[in-house]
Design goal:
Shape: globular
Oligomer: single chain
Number of helices: 2
CATH superfamily: ACT domain
Helix content: 10-25%
Order of helices and strands: EHEEHEE
Strand order of the largest sheet: 2-3-1-4-5
Number of strands: 5
Strand content: 35-45%
Distance between the termini: 42 Å
Number of domains: 1
CATH topology: Alpha-Beta Plaits
CATH architecture: 2-Layer Sandwich
Length: 101
Amino acid sequence: MPGNDRRCTFDVQLDRCTQTLCRLIGMFAQRDVPLAALTLTDAADGQRLTITTVALDRDAARIVAAKMCQFVAVRVVTLCDKDGSERTDAVGYVEHALPPP
C-alpha cells in the first residue's frame, strides 16, 4: 500500500563471506528496492551490515528479514523502524544456533 511505506533498517551480523554479502544486497535488487544507506563494518568475530531502505512496507520488510535469516553465514538479523526502535515481534530477529567459527 502506498501510504504504508516507511523507513526500515536491517542490521545483519554475519561471518566474513563475500558470497553471502552479495546475496543479501541482491535480495533488494531482485525486488527493485532502492537503498537509502548501506554500511559494512568489520568486527573481530565477523561483519556487520546495515541496510536502510524507504521502499518496503512492514510486511515486505519482515519477509526480506526472514529470508536473510536463512543464509548459513548470517548470525542475527534485527529489523528496526524509522525511529530506530527494534521490532522484536518481527520474523527478522533470529539467532542461529551454530557453533562459533
